[in-house]
Amino acid sequence: MSKLWGGRFTKPTNKLVEEETASIGFDQKLMEQDIKGSIAHVTMLGKQGIVSEEEKDQIINGLKKVEEKIVNKEVEYSVANEDIHMNIEKFLIEEIGPVGGKLHTGRSRNDQVATDMHLYLKEHTEMIIELVEKVQEAVYAQAESNVETLIPGYTHLQRAQPVSFAHHLLTYFWMLDRDKERFKDSLKRTNISPLGAGALAGTTFPIDRHTVAEELGFDKVYENSMDAVSDRDFILEFMSAASIMMMHISRLSEELVIWSSQEFQFIELDDSFCTGSSIMPQKKNPDVPELLRAKTGRVYGNLFGLLTVLKGLPLAYNKDMQEDKEGMFDTVETLEASLQMLAPMIASMEVKTDNMKQAVSQDFSNATDIADYLVTKGVAFRESHEVIGKIVLHAINNNKFLLDLTLEEYKDFHPLFEEDIFTVLKPEEVVRNRNSYGGTGQKQVIVQLEQAKTKMSR
Ligand code: ARG
Fold first, then answer.
1. Reported ipTM exceeds the 0.95 cut
2. pTM attached to this predicted model
3. Which EC number(s) does the record attach to this protein (predicted)?
4. CATH 1.10.275.10 domain span(s) along the chain
């Protein structure tokens, strides 16, 4: 098969080289964007009188026909035609004859592929932002119905102070909100048109880059043609935002795994999000959060892969840059699937409020509150801390919790203890009293829910 660039060559390409250098195996994912970009380009060529109106119409109709044939699998991609761009151009020439060869006037595959990538990532970033919002909605709904549910709050994975379960869940709402902001911000850099940069230096034809950019929905054009074809930092930025978000999702997943364990039994994941064991009949495994935790690794890997590909490249285009694609597609697809599973998994999980409550009552996470109690009676916090430490030790040695001690026992440690200590120590009170702004007290959690609501577009 003759190459679109065959003129200068005297020998056919080595077969293995042909297979290994071709990108059609993966860049066919850019088919729609490539056709869209070509239609915008040739529309501009027509407007500028670079091709005739008739030629422009022939090419546009041809491109639409080619798209239809590709979708209906009436044509087959070939490795000999290297990539999606040349495959489509070949199909076009087959479809409408030599006039199809005019499409590539004033354009190079270098600005073409960059345009396709920008278009693809723009569409998918927008989709991902919507999917993040769906997860936020699921988190919000669970939080809203669990304001009064108490759960041990941990530091060092040791019980620290009880919190409202809504407060714990909303932490993820805010993390996801910042993730969403990062994606929105990265969109500003993705929303720039490289088209018309040519191979690297611009073109001799009187093209109009601005109208093409507008036609394609871009905010602006790259100011420098070499930058336009060399830049992949819009992908890196997306991948960085993706990595940070997956880190958040991984932490949430880890908690879901822990909470659904026999040891904790704080939640039960819906059967439809778990799988069984081929040998142990009793098993119900939290595969989905485990996999989400693991998928984080490939998203980080894709970011580091591309950073490494780009780091030593001289300007402008280098074939190395073809390696930007698989990682980007993989990150996009991983994120979309992860978010799509996460939202319904959170929405459908059962919160075992009784087990959480029992955990909260059977620990020493109210110890800070007795320390604060003595402080309100005039004792210095450091001294109070020391006294309470001794009380905790005494309780542990006697196999009791703080609420099980008698007032006499308390008075043995400090004369300022009174009967009201038993109210202060109740987990509900412990949580309710943390009424500082952003704290876990239910009043504050309700304020937080209101704030969160304003962050959801629907
Ligand atoms: N398949 C190539 C890529 O993805 C398209 C650009 C090719 N340009 C070139 N000068 N060989 O990067």
1. yes
2. 0.94
3. 4.3.2.1
4. 6-105
Range 309-315, long-range pairs (CB < 8 A, 24+ positions): 310/232, 310/236, 313/230, 315/200, 315/226, 315/230
Residue 56 Cα to ligand 1 midpoint, Å, equals 25
Is any ligand 1 atom within 6 A of the Cβ of residue 83?
A: yes
Told to judge if 277 belongs to the known catalytic residues of this protein, a careful annotator would answer yes
Could you say which DSSP state residue 275 is in?
B
pLDDT number for residue 1: 59
Pocket of ligand 1 contains residue 120 by CB under 6 Å: no
Would you tell me which CATH number, out of the four given (1.10.1200.10, 3.40.640.10, 1.10.40.30, 3.40.50.2300), belongs to the domain 359-454?
1.10.40.30
Could you report the average pLDDT of every consecutive run of 10 residues in the chain (458 residues)?
A: 82 91 98 98 98 98 98 97 98 98 98 98 98 98 97 95 97 98 98 98 98 98 98 98 98 98 96 86 91 98 98 97 98 98 97 96 89 94 94 95 94 95 92 94 97 85
Establish whether 156 is a catalytic residue: yes
* Amino acid, res. 180: K
Q: Which residues contact 431 (CB under 8 A, 6 or more apart)?
A: 150, 162, 163, 164, 440, 441, 442
Any atom of ligand 1 within 6 Å of the Cβ of 166: no
- Nearest CA residue ID for atom 7, ligand 1: 109
CATH 1.10.275.10 fits 6-105, yes or no: yes
**Closest ligand 1 atom to 199 CA:** 10
From 18, 113, 318, give the residue whose CB has the most ligand 1 atoms within 8 Å, as the site to mutate: 113
Q: What is the pLDDT of residue 233?
A: 97
Please report the pLDDT score of residue 150 as a whole number.
97
